[in-house]
Amino acid sequence: MIETSADVTLPVTPEEAFAVVADIEHADWLPAVRRLRHIGGPSGGVGARYEVEAGLVGRHLRGVLVCTELTPPKHMVLTLEEGLDLTLEVNIRKVVGGCTVVMSARYSVTGRPFAGAVELASQGAARRETARACEQLAARFGRKSGNARSAAG
């Protein structure tokens, strides 16, 4: 299993940051995602289902992304029901002058030849995508890119 995380401090309240993060259908700050479309469940919140198309590590991925946990304004978990075994988690906490957003991703490639090698080969790209998501989220709030920190888990 590969784990990656990145964080960014935003000059807004946790509520403002969470409103953008939790609006999955308009998540243009997720750099690898090419398309998201609501396909079932509530329009937002636990149980919301989205058809997702993403490009990562030179591959075109499709699946169903489901909101499995939502605790406004501080926590959200999305899991990919079909396709790659993937969990995305966002945690937001108040800090002086704004809030810190921590994005984490955990995924594994199973049932394929050379699955372990594919995981290892994709680790760097996954770290970069997680950091880019933080940078693009920061840009939505007027921050310039390059302020996100990335760490492997």
Provide an overview of this structure.
This protein has a single domain (2-152), classed as Alpha-D-Glucose-1,6-Bisphosphate, Chain A, domain 4 (2-Layer Sandwich), CATH 3.30.530. The protein is 22% helix and 46% strand. The protein is built from 2 helices and 8 strands; from the N terminus they run βαββββββαβ. An 8-stranded antiparallel β-sheet has the order 2-3-4-5-6-7-1-8, with helices on one face. Mean pLDDT is 80; it is low at 144-153.
Features:
153 residues, alpha+beta, eight-stranded antiparallel β-sheet, 2 helices, 8 strands, 22% helix, globular, disordered C terminus
> In CATH's first tier, which class applies?
Alpha Beta
Return the CATH topology. Alpha-D-Glucose-1,6-Bisphosphate, Chain A, domain 4
Question: Mean of residue pLDDT?
Answer: 80
Helix content: 10-25%
The biggest beta sheet reads: 8 strands, antiparallel
Strand content: over 45%
The CATH architecture: 2-Layer Sandwich
End-to-end distance? 10 Å
Secondary structure category: alpha+beta
CATH level 4 superfamily? START domain
